[in-house]
Design goal:
binds S-adenosylmethionine, globular
Length: 352
């Protein structure tokens, strides 16, 4: 297919996902307001000028995504990777789960877990219905619906934002040119359902990949996704990022996507310390998380409404938290910042 046609197909594909996300959000809030009119006053419409800015930021993200594929950071096919089977199997369940979400929202019930869910042994900050999800991160249904919910939230741009870690990751790994591709070890902290590991696998087919997360259900889902890819299976381990279950100086690179806004401030610091500990001298640590107020003040409206609409108890503090200072405090240096659409990236280096 000629390059211009592939690009047009990609843009149309993404625009389709964006419209789908928008349509879902509109329909869902109309239905919710019908069933629970009292919740209506709490949601304010997004101002038009902000919608224009968001569209510009989204277009910029997609252009960068396209350009990185053209530069060979990852194969072009990754731009079209979409969990279709999950979409058709689980989209109806997103709707079926909605009334329970609205009820919890109405009751302001944020720690609602079914009796069969074992919440013992998890940190209390974690035993929450993040995003009002039924059973938080602790059920198989939650793991099956998670990627769809994130896609709807970001208008189909979640993977495009995750892919922004790949160029700095490959750049950071150049410090280890003397290692064979197989000897390179990469850890994804809070790997969730494995989307980031899947993207890393496509960009670095031979690297040894590792993922850790607190949720057994999400790890099961990650295993299901990653075991379909030919080549070596990433090693998945259940663990708390506050005590990473790996020896010191083990990984050439460590990544973490959409974790830090879900941690209390002191835990953010502990996790950063742990990531420093397990990174090899000369290695790179990349965080991808939400935008922050300091560099995206024009999106303050989004940052204010996000934790209201979705249950995100630590998000507000996150938006003003100085992560650069936290990274420097444990010893990271040469910290580069990037912003893409709704995400911010911290690319930090452990001194050689
Ligand atoms: C918003 S999800 C992000 C998942 C994935 N990285 C992604 O890109 O979609 C947050 C993830 O962090 C995990 N998590 C939260 N606190 C954790 C902790 N202290 N240690 C390990 N994982 C944690 C959750 O189980 C969940 O899978």
């Amino acid at each position: 297919m000629p390059e211009s046609l592939t690009k047009l197909t990609y843009q149309t594909f993404q625009q389709g996902k964006n419209y789908f996300g928008l349509a879902h959000k509109i329909l869902s809030s109309q239905l919710r307001n019908l069933v629970y009119p009292t919740l209506q006053q709490k949601t304010k419409p997004i101002p038009n000028e902000l919608l224009v800015k968001l569209q510009q930021r989204l277009n910029q993200l997609l252009e960068t995504d396209w350009q990185d594929a053209q530069k060979g950071v990852y194969p072009e096919s990754l731009l079209f990777d979409n969990p279709w089977q999950d979409f058709f199997s689980y989209y109806p369940l997103v709707w079926l789960d909605s009334p329970q979400i609205w009820e919890r929202l109405k009751q302001q019930n944020y720690q609602d877990f079914s009796p069969e869910i074992d919440t013992d042994g998890y940190p209390s900050y974690y035993v929450q219905n993040f995003h009002h999800q039924s059973n938080g991160y602790l059920s198989d249904l939650s793991a099956n619906l998670y990627d769809l919910q994130v896609e709807i939230l970001f208008g189909g741009a979640a993977d495009a934002m995750r892919r922004r870690i790949l160029a700095p990751l490959k750049q950071g790994l150049k410090a280890f040119d003397s290692f064979t591709p197989k000897q390179v070890r990469i850890l994804d902290v809070a790997c969730g359902t494995g989307r980031t590991l899947k993207l890393i696998r496509a960009a670095l087919p031979q690297a040894s990949l590792f993922g850790t997360d607190l949720s057994p259900a999400y790890l099961r889902k990650a295993n299901e996704l990653l075991s379909q890819i030919p080549g070596e299976l990433p090693q998945l381990l259940q663990g708390n990022a506050e005590e990473l279950p790996y020896v010191d100086n083990y990984f050439h690179a460590v990544t973490s996507v959409f974790l830090f806004h879900e941690l209390p401030a002191s835990v953010r610091q502990t996790v950063i310390e742990q990531c420093f500990r397990v990174t090899k001298p000369g290695g790179v640590f990349i965080i991808c998380d939400s935008i922050q107020l300091s560099d995206s003040p024009e999106l303050e409206y989004m940052m204010d409404s996000f934790p209201e609409t979705f249950h995100e108890p630590y998000y507000k503090h996150y938006t003003t938290d100085n992560l650069v200072e936290r990274l420097q405090r444990v010893g990271f240096e040469n910290i580069e910042i990037q912003d893409h659409f709704m995400s911010k990236y911290f690319i930090a280096h452990k001194p050689a």
